[in-house]
Amino acid sequence: AQKVTQAQTEISVVEKEDVTLDCVYETRDTTYYLFWYKQPPSGELVFLIRRNSFDEQNEISGRYSWNFQKSTSSFNFTITASQVVDSAVYFCALSEGGGSQGNLIFGKGTKLSVKP
Amino acid sequence: SAVISQKPSRDICQRGTSLTIQCQVDSQVTMMFWYRQQPGQSLTLIATANQGSEATYESGFVIDKFPISRPNLTFSTLTVSNMSPEDSSIYLCSVEIGLEIDTQYFGPGTRLTVL
To answer: Between chain A and chain B, how many beta carbons pairs sit less than 8 Å apart?
Structure first.
């Protein structure tokens, strides 16, 4: 069965520190998608990135980077030089199969607090 | 992406009443979904809102409790019926847009408190 594990419940860092949020997934499908979403205190869920199972290239977007490793079933997210505005709950999610499946399986989320 | 709005943004309701939440998208979308996020928890899919037909519900969710409508490709409603305090959650709609199949964009959510 599919599952997403975010072992870190809460992380607290000081501004400008680098921080990595871990995500480990389980799936029997060979085709799947992985996602990261950010939920700031206001509550909306903001899409950050999608990665398909055939693309293991790491990605960098500004201060954000993602490390996808199929060998360890992990899709970790690193924020470099963290800022107070990065404070939020971050969710990793999995979608199985090709095409629209609808059901995103979310991890329990990691609450990141960045202190000035 | 698309602009997704939800109404109301929050509400406080009495036990036994019902609340209808609206989700409006500024462009036609292929798929629309409804999720629930209980306090301090992750998101759980309630159902897929199908245009012109009955919604497809996930295990543990039933139409009598969460009736859903989707009259067109830009609008959907979720009703939370006969509410109890356990229904206090954030309810979010999400959409898949055209070419970006499998990427869901979320509305701002409706924060519901049931007394």
So the answer is: 56
